[in-house]
Q: What sequence folds into this?
């Protein structure tokens, strides 16, 4: 199996306590399904018997399987899988057992040297059932366990299990978050982390294991985050964490904040729609406590950088992936306009391998909803390794990037479950606007200009709520164009990143080919794509480049291309030119992305529904991209 076949991003759960494990595991897997939905499985240990139930497909299928083939026991592990290559089959589903049936485990990550390890184990007569890298880990633990037992160690001694696990981890190259059960040591659940996130929930004589905090909600708010090279034993008798180099370490129990709690769909049919409608509130939360009217500036609690340091910055690098990268582009326009600091936006996947010349006066901000994106994390580590202060703009409290960065700003948007990012984008833009104000006010921006900036920002939640009233119009537009095979998205200045974001939304949930461009770039090539079956979505609210965008729009109309315009209210001129108009409120140009992105999110949603696509779980994607 080549390395690509092993690329998996998954969700892990575990439970040890006094309640029926299978109910808790299935509940946890349902909440983690956004991380992958190619297969699901659980293993429960009871009376020195390991029972495994797993199958290809969604958690709903696993629930049916367990209804007909229940498992008893109050210690177990579970897994939901996302595979980029290779067949998501029953046999490749997790959990995986070793050959002797003594060890069972679930894994999130990539074992890069699995071929070599497999060859070595095969020489000892070990037979493999699946084509996953994960089974190699189970077999290797089983092999080390066998050696230990043969040399006199007791199979039911937790120290023997620690030793088998440690010896295995020392041989692995790659990344892993593991949940492991040993048949002969049934009161315990082991976990190990290197590169893939794991959090332990601490209950009353019970412990939970999960890839993120969403499965813990409703069970406990007390959590312990594992660090890389930590292994942990979760038992009814307590929790022990050992670090590879430092041995047993103190565990710091933290309390999850309220905002992590709202993971229910409520009245909405999809998380994406719920999250689109949450934006007035999520934007408000991003601003809460951060507007300082007295000094006409912004305040941030966790930047960990003093004013002197921030005044010395002469260059900013914003690094991110996907939607967060688009928010970064808006940030570049904001910071350069209001703080006059040269700013670059780098794909994290490029920055991590480039020898970018960062100086002592460069500040790096990583932008990420999840705080777990592998490329963004690697870019953060690379910048920090070179001694550069690296801050995070992040939504997920306690995520790896939030914990490893030198400081940062939380979005406070609440959990974003829909794979297509929506509210995180507008919260990121809000935080970047506040950052631009803050950096501008400590340079040359006047008090009056700062006041006006804050006033405009303060009005945004209400204006975003009004923007959502365009939903019925968007639904009609979607009906007219849902069967087109190609779309173009065009905008200029602050609305250029919005065009990119609109195209990404349509692509990822409706599988329609869409391209975003700065509107004026059309005539340098992409205009050749225009025909009567290729709608162009123009983001053209009133502002400094309005006339220019209208000219670009007329160029498309002259070539017979249908045009959908996102335009200011009562814009008769645009209405007379285009096929469909979706109105948005007038707002200052620098805040336009907060309103112009909303109809584009709704358009992607409605088109995807009409095409029968699974909006919250688009094919081939997963919410957190935790592998390279
Ligand atoms: O969690 P992050 O913000 O780091 O995620 C980055 C991208 O993977 C993410 O924005 C992705 O592009 C979304 N699916 C877009 O909707």
A:
């Amino acid at each position: 199996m080549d390395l690509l076949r092993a690329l998996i991003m998954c969700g892990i759960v575990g439970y040890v306590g006094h309640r029926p494990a299978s109910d808790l595991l299935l509940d946890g897997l349902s909440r983690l399904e956004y991380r992958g939905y190619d297969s699901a499985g659980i293993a429960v240990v009871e009376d020195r018997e390991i029972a495994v139930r797993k199958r290809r497909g969604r958690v709903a299928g696993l629930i049916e399987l367990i209804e007909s083939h229940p498992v008893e026991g109050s210690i177990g592990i579970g897994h939901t899988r996302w595979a980029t290559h290779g067949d998501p089959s029953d046999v490749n589903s997790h959990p995986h057992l070793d050959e002797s049936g003594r060890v069972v485990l679930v894994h999130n990550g990539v074992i890069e040297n699995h071929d070599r390890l497999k060859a070595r184990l095969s020489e000892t007569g070990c037979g493999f059932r699946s084509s996953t890298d994960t089974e190699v880990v189970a077999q290797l633990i089983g092999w080390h366990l066998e050696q230990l037992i043969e040399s006199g160690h007791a199979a039911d001694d937790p120290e023997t299990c620690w030793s088998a696990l440690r010896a295995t981890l020392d041989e692995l190259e790659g990344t892993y978050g593991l949940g492991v059960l040993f048949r002969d040591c049934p009161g315990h659940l082991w976990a190990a982390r290197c590169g893939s996130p794991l959090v332990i929930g601490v209950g009353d004589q019970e412990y939970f294991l999960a890839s993120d905090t969403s499965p813990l909600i409703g069970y406990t708010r007390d959590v312990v985050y594992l660090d890389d090279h930590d292994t942990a034993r979760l038992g009814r008798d307590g929790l022990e964490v050992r670090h590879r180099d430092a041995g047993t370490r103190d565990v710091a129990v933290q309390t999850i904040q309220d905002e992590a709690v709202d993971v229910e769909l409520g009245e909405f049919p999809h998380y994406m729609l719920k999250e689109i409608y949450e934006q007035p509130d999520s934007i408000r939360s991003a601003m809460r406590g951060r507007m300082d009217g007295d000094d006409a500036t912004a305040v941030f609690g966790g930047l960990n950088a003093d004013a002197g340091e921030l005044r010395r910055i002469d260059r900013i690098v914003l690094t991110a992936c996907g939607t967060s990268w688009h928010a970064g582009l808006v940030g570049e326009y904001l910071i350069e306009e209001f703080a006059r600091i040269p700013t670059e936006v780098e794909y994290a996947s490029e920055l991590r391998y480039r020898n970018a010349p960062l100086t002592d006066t460069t500040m790096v901000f990583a932008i990420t909803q999840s705080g777990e994106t592998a490329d963004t994390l690697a870019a953060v580590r690379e910048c920090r390794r070179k001694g550069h202060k690296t801050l995070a703009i992040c939504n997920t409290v306690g995520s790896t990037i939030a914990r490893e960065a030198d400081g940062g700003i939380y979005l406070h948007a609440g959990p974003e479950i829909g794979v297509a990012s929506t509210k995180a984008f507008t919260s990121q833009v809000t935080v970047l606007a506040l950052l631009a104000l803050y950096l501008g006010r400590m340079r040359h921006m006047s008090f009056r200009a700062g006041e006006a900036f804050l006033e405009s920002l303060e009005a945004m939640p209400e204006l975003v709520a009004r923007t959502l009233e365009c939903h019925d119009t968007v639904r009609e537009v979607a009906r007219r164009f849902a069967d087109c095979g190609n779309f173009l998205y065009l905008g200029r200045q602050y609305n250029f990143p919005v065009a990119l974001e609109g195209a990404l939304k349509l692509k990822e949930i409706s599988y329609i080919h869409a391209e975003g461009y700065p509107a004026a770039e059309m005539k340098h090539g992409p205009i050749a794509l225009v025909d009567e079956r290729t709608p162009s979505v123009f983001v053209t609210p009133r502002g400094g480049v309005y006339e220019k965008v209208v000219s670009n729009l007329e160029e498309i109309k002259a070539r017979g291309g249908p045009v959908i315009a996102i335009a200011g209210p009562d814009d008769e001129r645009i209405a007379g030119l285009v096929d469909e108009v979706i109105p948005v409120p007038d707002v200052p140009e620098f805040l336009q992305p907060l309103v112009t992105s909303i109809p584009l999110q709704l358009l992607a949603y409605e088109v995807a529904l009409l095409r029968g696509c699974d909006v919250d779980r688009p094919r081939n994607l997963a919410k957190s991209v935790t592998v390279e």
Notes: Residues 321-324, 368-370, 373, 376, 419-421, 504, 508, 624-625 surround 5-amino-5-deoxy-1-O-phosphono-D-mannitol (CB under 6 Å).
